[in-house]
Amino acid sequence: MSNGILAIVAVVPILVALFLMVGLRKPATFAMPVAWLATVAGALLVWKTTPLYIAALTLQGFVIAFNLLIIVFGAIVLLYTLKYSGGMETIQAGFHRLSPDPRVQLVIIAFLFGAFIEGAAGFGTPAALAAPLLMLLGFPPLAAALVCLVLNTVPVPFAAVGTPIFLGLEYLQPLVVDAVKAGTPGLPFNDVASFNHQVGRLVALIHVPMIMLLPLFMCGFLSRHFSPRRSWREGFSAWRFCLFASCSFLVPYLLLACYVGPEFPSLVGSLLALIIVVWGVKRGFFLPRQSFSFGPAEKWPANWTGILPPQSLELPKEHMSQLRAWSPYVLIGLILVFTRLPQFGLKGFLSARSIDFVDILGFPTVDAAIPYLYLPGLLPFTVVALLTVWLHAMPAGHAVQAWKDSFRAIKNPTIALLFAVAIVSIFRGTGIQDELLNPHAYLSMPIAMAQAIAGLVGSAWPVAAAFVGGVGSFITGSNTVSNLLFAEFQWGVATELGFRRDIIIAAQVVGGAMGNMICIHNIVAVGAVVGLFGMEGIVLRKNILPFLLYGLLAGAMTLVLLAF
């Protein structure tokens, strides 16, 4: 059978997921199991593998997904603990009184505070936290949802202390090892750890123009679509403040990505930028000279507000000091420094503690592991969540409720992630060199797709690579799962076309980040907290322009990096 036919069969599960989620508006909890069935059918009927092998690969995917779920749960339980302790409301109240200008509020809350939450938690939480706060400050709900979705992109590759890189690129580890052993000339890495660090550097470099331009673009976008004069100029007049904030974030973001690792650029970079920018705002540095307004609320179009008017919400209150409210995040940063930097001697010990699943169902090539102490879901997220009960003097009932809500919140992501990662595991496993499990010696599903796409696109692939990552996030709702799904495919295309593989993988990671702004899961989640029920189509259409511009910038930066 030709590689073209194999590629068509391989792409069917992706098309099934797209059709169900976009065409029929089915949730990922339904679409992912159906797409898994389509993957199983292709593996059995075309690759002629065995049901037991498919079961082993599915279990392997479940174990890897469980690693991701530990991180998701730890992030969620920390957020719910802060919600019930009053810490999150205290933090929001501190931002509320900074400035009355919506452009300044957009930059501080949607861009910098959102980046901090993304670095600490990830998984769609920043937009869901920042959008209601902007709404309370007077933003139309539609505007709040749009800007928070678009600005929750740059920090995503380093979300939840680097999960999209460390876990999302896990399936590339054997390929990285093989490339190093083969003595491939000019490799800028010599093992898996240095490869991850190198991808993080490249991701940060690709993001330089986005960090510098995106806050300013979204200020113009805000005034063009939501001011009475519908003028880009009103938003762009805040250019000095936007550049001040962008530079405050870009410098530590780049330095941390280049010299420390993927755990810290979003978490620590945004925190440092918040300190600098808030200090500057309090002293009036670079603030816009002309005022900006959305106009009287009674004149807003109906689709700006949905069903939840701003006045139905209460302004956030301070329940404790700002230092006390922020103390859990300070602890997270300190724990990460001591456990991730090798100079302190804990990194090797923690990463070596794991539960290993070897030769799953008797297949020697099917392995997985749970490095339970090194996953940030346990240390620091869950540990800090428990310490927060004491730090914030929480009543026992509130702490119990936070955990109950966290278990409820994890239910739907669990179903979707288990089957999404199982699809990836089957994708990869189809290429095994075994007469019984792959009797026709076909290429694996992602490599078959890679060869077909390489033949069609050719030298234009660096421009398209980020858009593939964006489609992955659009389908799965996660940069991490998009990377699991497409990283091996991107590696294959880069190999076929002779491009540097680390740069193309970085473009994939950046694309997975930009997909956050059009991901149906995120749009629904943000719409729910600001009352935009049934308006997902409007949000998606308005975010297409920023998505396309982001992808083109990523493509241009990928070409620049390949040229050097």
* Low-confidence blocks of residues: none
Average of the residue pLDDT scores: 89
Distance between termini? 39 Å
> How are strands sequenced across the largest beta sheet?
1-2
Overall radius of gyration: 23 Å
Order of helices and strands: HHHHHHHHHHHHHHHHEEHHHHHHHH
Compute the number of strand runs. 2
Give the biggest beta sheet. Answer: 2 strands, antiparallel
- Principal-axis shape equals globular
Q: What's the number of helices?
A: 24
Strand content: under 5%
Tell me the helix content: 55-70%
Q: Which secondary-structure class do the elements indicate?
A: mainly alpha
List keywords for this structure.
mainly alpha; two-stranded antiparallel ribbon; 564 residues; globular
Descriptive notes:
With 564 residues, the chain is mainly α. It has 24 helices and two strands. Strands 1-2 form a two-stranded antiparallel sheet. Helix 5 runs parallel beside helix 13, helix 6 runs parallel beside helix 23 and helix 7 runs parallel beside helix 24. The model has no long low-confidence stretch (mean pLDDT 89).
Which helices and strands, and how do they pair?
Layout: H1 3-23, H2 28-45, H3 51-85, H4 87-96, H5 102-120, H6 125-136, H7 141-151, H8 159-166, H9 173-181, H10 192-206, H11 208-226, H12 232-236, H13 239-259, H14 267-282, H15 322-340, H16 347-352, E1 355-357, E2 368-370, H17 377-391, H18 396-429, H19 445-457, H20 461-476, H21 479-497, H22 501-514, H23 520-530, H24 536-563
Antiparallel strand pairs: 1-2
Helix pairs in contact: 1-2, 1-19, 2-18, 3-17, 3-18, 4-15, 5-6, 5-7, 5-8, 5-11, 5-13, 5-14, 6-7, 6-23, 7-11, 7-23, 7-24, 10-13, 10-22, 11-13, 13-14, 15-17, 18-21, 19-21, 20-21, 20-22, 20-24, 21-22, 22-24
